């Protein structure tokens, strides 16, 4: 069974980003989640391909790039050249999501699609055979520290059921938003594999290693 913990650097200390990335790497992070926001697709701005390149110099862990931007095709090659391992593109950000996924594959990275809380899974079902990952937003995108939307567990469960019914649909299910020691159990039991956590990890008082190990243990137990 797959359980991967992906610290979101949106919640790290921006003035000590290298310190926090190295600490999370040493503490057992499986993946690093990097939000690229343009202030248009979502009402916030964060990071750039330069951050991806900088992180690639300090960690060998996969870099999971969440593109919350309009016109994502214009940036796909740039973020992959900077060191992206997986590029996650919002279904809502482009009229040509299939083409965007093909571009990611063309430039050599893994490709994923993101769906907002209000976006039906049916809108991306045709992508299932060609994607490596689906990211289900469990909060409205744009800001860290938000509260998990309870109804998203049913959406994750439906997605896992769809995945199991088709032999050629071999993607991971990732969740992002409000993940903590309680909500990760719900998501893992519903079928999620990769868990993005920001505030819970970086703002905790008991240390990154303790929190990463704790999340992984809870998720594994929930999947039994």
From TrEMBL:
Example GO biological process: pentose catabolic process
Entries under PROSITE patterns matching the protein: RIBUL_P_3_EPIMER_1, RIBUL_P_3_EPIMER_2
Cofactor: record remark: Binds 1 divalent metal cation per subunit.
List of residues binding substrate: 8, 66, 142-145, 176-178, 198-199
SUPFAM superfamilies, sorted: Ribulose-phoshate binding barrel
One Pfam family of this chain: Ribul_P_3_epim
Active site residues per record: 35, 176
EC number: 5.1.3.1
Listed GO CC annotations: cytoplasm
Function, in words: Catalyzes the reversible epimerization of D-ribulose 5-phosphate to D-xylulose 5-phosphate.
Protein name, as recorded: Ribulose-phosphate 3-epimerase
